[in-house]
Automatic annotation (TrEMBL):
GO terms for cellular component: plasma membrane. This is MFS transporter. It comes from Actinoallomurus iriomotensis. Residues 31-415 form the Major facilitator superfamily (MFS) profile domain. The keyword Membrane applies. Residues 1-22 are annotated as: Disordered. Residues 1-10 have a biased composition (Basic and acidic residues). It comes from the Bacteria. PROSITE patterns: MFS (PS50850), SUGAR_TRANSPORT_1 (PS00216). It is a multi-pass membrane protein. The keyword Transmembrane applies. InterPro entries: MFS, MFS_dom, MFS_trans_sf, MFS_Transporters, Sugar_transporter_CS. Its main location: membrane. Pfam families: MFS_1.
Length: 415
């Protein structure tokens, strides 16, 4: 019989009711979540930092919107590859070795981006960024859960939006108002990574090394049998909200500038920043609401936001676009948080990195594939406005699919 999911996201009597946590999880130190959370923020900030720069790069190197979305998609695909190959590694070799390696690669990637002289270097930097981020996400999320399962689950859901929003805003402000616009933001990030590396060297390990590290490198989307139901319930909404994030990351800046008639990179990045920050605030605000309720709320907000953006695009309304973005942020935060909380608190300590990696694979598929397709449509289809309209309709369809999937899985649990 399939194990039921209660409104608190815990397993029914058939599940594993108690699993001895690591020592660090039983007696969490004050601030123990801060370091892994800060690394998630800085890695996602690094991923968002190039967004306001795409217009600058395009003007300097004369590339089309397809190139912009390919650069965006290369990052997402690299994250996917790294999640598949490296996602479970920290469950075997420990969190610290994986995080140190990821910080080293992320630093190299940022140096490549800071010194980029063309599209090839930009693609190489984004590829390295994606490998580093994908290799680290499972370990970082698991490290937070090792310290405190409930707070760790909320922090897992809140920090990606915080990081992405911070990266887009910081980069936009530096590009607009500071010297060396294509270098300074990367230098700030490099300094941050070095400090975090020192912190990882000093942090205690939260899991015991286990054999099988080499076998863990074989690409696999493995979900423990007891978690398959929760993952099926969460997958459609996770895909949908990250497809929305992909829209704002790839086409959002150009759309905001076209609707507003502004050439400011700050205005271009404002939509992505608003989506990410509102999403993070929604994640925290809904932390004690039952996860299924949160997912239903997120789906509703996603549908409302997509409708609002459709209307704003038809009316060429800048205010309508940002109002829709605000609602979209609520939907993003609620959908992502509800999906994470439905699954990750149920994972045993030695399953956490692998389970989180599966969830992030779903998220980055949602973000990467539609955004690359949208870039092709901008050039060979209906242009920016037409593609934005089609993408909003696509998000509406995803929201309907997510609702049907959630209701279907809920009925199966009650049988």
């Amino acid at each position: 019989m399939t194990e039921p999911i209660t409104d608190h996201g815990m397993r029914g009597p058939a599940g594993r009711e108690a699993i001895a946590p690591p020592v660090a999880e039983r007696r969490p130190r004050r601030g123990a979540l801060a370091l892994p959370a800060s690394i998630v923020v800085s890695f996602l900030a690094a991923s968002g930092a190039p967004t306001p720069l795409y217009a600058t790069y395009a003007g300097r190197w004369h590339f089309s919107p397809i190139t912009t979305t390919v650069v965006f998609g290369v990052y997402a695909m690299a994250v996917l590859l790294a999640l598949l190959v490296l996602g479970r590694l920290s469950d075997h070799v420990g969190r610290r070795p994986v995080l140190l390696a990821a910080l080293a690669v992320q630093t190299v990637a940022t140096v490549v981006l800071a010194t980029a002289g063309g599209v090839g270097a930009l693609l190489a930097g984004r590829l390295l960024q994606g490998i580093s981020t994908g290799g680290a996400l499972g370990a970082l999320g698991a490290a937070m859960l090792d310290v405190h399962p409930r707070r760790g689950a909320i922090t897992n859901a809140a920090t990606p939006g915080m990081g992405t929003g911070a990266g887009v805003l910081l980069s936009g402000l530096l590009v607009q108002y500071a010297p060396a616009p294509t270098h300074l933001v990367y230098l700030v990030l490099i300094g941050t990574f070095v400090l975090q590396g020192v912190g990882v060297v000093l942090m205690p390990e939260t899991v015991t090394r286990r054999p099988g590290g080499r076998a863990a490198l074989v690409p696999e989307l493995a979900v423990p049998p007891g978690l398959r139901g929760p993952v099926l319930a969460a997958a459609p909404i996770l895909f949908a909200v990250w497809a929305l994030a992909g829209f704002y990351g790839s086409l959002g800046p150009a759309l905001a500038r076209q609707l507003s008639g502004s050439t400011s990179v700050v205005v271009g990045g404002l939509g992505f920043f608003l989506l990410a920050v509102v999403g993070s605030l929604a994640t925290v605000a809904l932390d004690r609401t039952p996860p299924r309720t949160v997912m239903l709320f997120g789906i509703t907000m996603l549908a409302v936001a997509s409708t609002g953006i459709l209307i704003a695009v038809e009316l060429s309304s800048t205010a309508g676009f940002f109002a829709g973005t605000f609602v979209a942020g609520i939907g993003f935060g609620a959908g992502f948080q509800g999906g994470i909380r439905t699954v990750v608190p149920l994972a045993a300590p030695h399953e956490r990195a692998g389970v989180l990696s599966v969830l992030y694979v779903i998220c980055y598929c949602g973000m990467g594939v539609p955004s690359v397709a949208a870039g092709v449509l901008v050039v060979h289809g209906g242009g920016l406005i037409g593609t934005a309209r089609d993408y909003a309709l696509f998000i509406l369809a995803l929201a309907a699919t997510a609702l049907a999937g959630l209701l279907s899985t809920s009925r199966s649990y009650r049988k």
